[in-house]
Amino acid sequence: MSSQSAAPRGTAPHGTAPHGLDDAVRVGLGALLAVLAAGFLRPLRHRAVASAGELLARAAATAALWLAGLAVAASLARHTFTDLLPADSPADLLGDLLDASPSIGFRADVGSTLLYGLLWVAGVLLLALLVSRRAPLPARLLRYQEPVRPAASAMLSLLLAYVVLGLAVGLVVAATRGHPADTFAVLLLGLPNLAWMALGLGIGASWEGRVEGPFGLPMPQVLDQVLRGPEDTTLDVRSLAAQDGRAWWLIPVAALLLLAAAFTMAARSPARTRLWQHALHLAVAFAATLLVVIPLTRLDARLGLSLLGIFEVEALGGRVSLHPHLWSAVGLALLWGAAAGALGGLLARRVRRPGVAAPPPPPGRSG
């Protein structure tokens, strides 16, 4: 007995996932994207200005290298989850009757992976130009680097910090709870989406969704527990904490990491920047960041069960959906960003920043 794969934003016949699970390959190779971005910027680091044509040519060469590596990774990205059915479920009993084991698997679609991978690398290289303090820009864009680059760099650091935390948690789970292959497959499937969902939950954002059918989600069990039911359920910190009290830690973690990002932004901003400007810059940057990453947490999947790969048993199928409340998350980001930006600016006042001249040496004593 085999089952149909769970595929975000689409369905897939008989164990393939041509839409959505190829996201696992793209996000799983984020570290390689960072290396490519560094290689893209390194030859330009000693220059103040570069023409648009030169930047485009270097970006095209970097993208070609990235797509070659991505094609190899996509062809290898596949995994099958087992033991996802609760005991004594109809599907489990049917499997015992036919002496078969139910499973849920995924594999990446190479074509769509390369298409979206091209969009990813284009976005990463553009982001690299925005956040790097040494990257040259076309002359007409130089005036925008002072207000944009510190805020963009701070937001990138915030997102990466969440991904590192998510990876660390996953490694601890793999080492202490068994089934390491399944855990690593979940990391490939869910990072950075799950990590960025934790950021949104930490500032009060919410999602609406449900899990139907006998199958469990190959993701943290607490999500499955909150979302399982015949009707849509609100996913937020409160509903998570009802299942696992440790969910309340998402709030102080979000506050601490956002404040660290605000301090970093203020320390890299010119000394003449005022507190209200710090607040405005971080509010806009944080809202824009969530406007980009929160939609990546959206999930729509239909799970079907086929007998011997011949026909599908609709009664034993299921559905998974998860939709963010995007604009409320953006509004909360504006408020959190403004508060953190002002406080980060206050904390950075004693830090030597760009535009602050070093104090003159004390005058020497005359004989």
Report on this structure.
With 367 residues, the chain is an alpha+beta fold. Strands 1-6-7-4-5 form a five-stranded antiparallel sheet. Strands 2-3 form a two-stranded antiparallel sheet. The model is unreliable at 1-29 (pLDDT under 50). The protein has helices spanning 23-28, 30-41, 52-76, 90-98, 110-131, 145-176, 180-190, 193-202, 221-227, 237-243, 250-268, 275-293, 326-347, and strands at residues 2-3, 78-82, 103-107, 207-212, 233-235, 299-307, 311-324. The chain is built from 13 helices and seven strands. The N and C termini lie far apart (97 Å).
Overall average residue pLDDT:
78
Count the strands? 7
Helix content: 40-55%
> What's the end-to-end separation, in Å?
97 Å
Shape: globular
Which strand order does the major sheet show? 1-6-7-4-5
Series of secondary-structure elements, N-terminal to C-terminal:
EHHHEHEHHHHEHEHHHEEH
Radius of gyration: 24 Å
Q: What structural category characterises the helix and strand content?
A: alpha+beta
Strand content: 5-15%
